[in-house]
Design a protein that fits this description.
mainly alpha; 434 Repressor (Amino-terminal Domain); 8 helices; Cro/C1-type_HTH; HTH cro/C1-type domain-containing protein; Lambda_DNA-bd_dom_sf
C-alpha cells in the first residue's frame, strides 16, 4: 500500500475517534476554521481521504492538533514519545504570567474567533 493511502487510513481513524464524520465537507469546514493559511477545497479534503494526496507539513500539524494525535504518527504511522510535549514545555516556559493568561483566553475561544485573532496578529507583525 502506498504512503498516501496509509495516511488516509490514519486520518479517517483519527476523524472517527474525535467524533467527526470522515467526509470531505466535514474535513474542509473544520480544517479551514483552524488553519490560518490558504484554505483547503472540498477536492483537497477528498484527495486526503481517498489516499490520493498527503498534506504539507504545516497542514499536517494543524490536522494533528485538531484531532489530538501525534503529527509524526498521522504522517508516518509511528509514534515519537514525548517530542511534542517537550516542545510545548519549552515554548510555555518562556512566557510571563500575563502572556500565559492571554494564551489561555485565546485557546478558550472557538476556532473561528481564534482564526480572526491570528489574522490580526499576522497583520500587526507585518513590517
Amino acid at each position: 500500500m502506498n504512503e498516501a493511502k496509509l495516511f488516509s487510513e490514519r486520518l479517517i481513524e483519527s476523524l472517527l475517534a474525535a467524533g467527526y464524520a470522515s467526509r470531505p465537507i466535514v474535513l474542509e469546514n473544520e480544517f479551514n476554521q483552524r488553519y490560518w493559511g490558504k484554505p483547503i477545497s472540498f477536492q483537497t479534503g477528498r484527495r486526503w481521504l481517498r489516499g490520493e494526496a498527503i498534506p504539507t507539513q504545516d497542514r499536517l500539524q494543524v490536522l494533528a492538533e485538531w484531532l489530538n494525535v501525534d503529527p509524526h504518527w498521522l504522517r508516518f504511522g509511528e509514534k515519537l514519545h514525548g517530542s511534542v510535549k517537550q516542545q510545548r514545555k519549552r515554548w510555555d516556559a518562556a512566557m510571563t504570567p500575563e502572556e500565559r493568561q492571554a494564551m489561555e483566553v485565546f485557546l478558550s475561544l472557538p476556532p473561528e474567533k481564534r482564526k480572526m485573532v491570528g489574522e490580526i496578529i499576522y497583520a500587526l507583525a507585518k513590517p
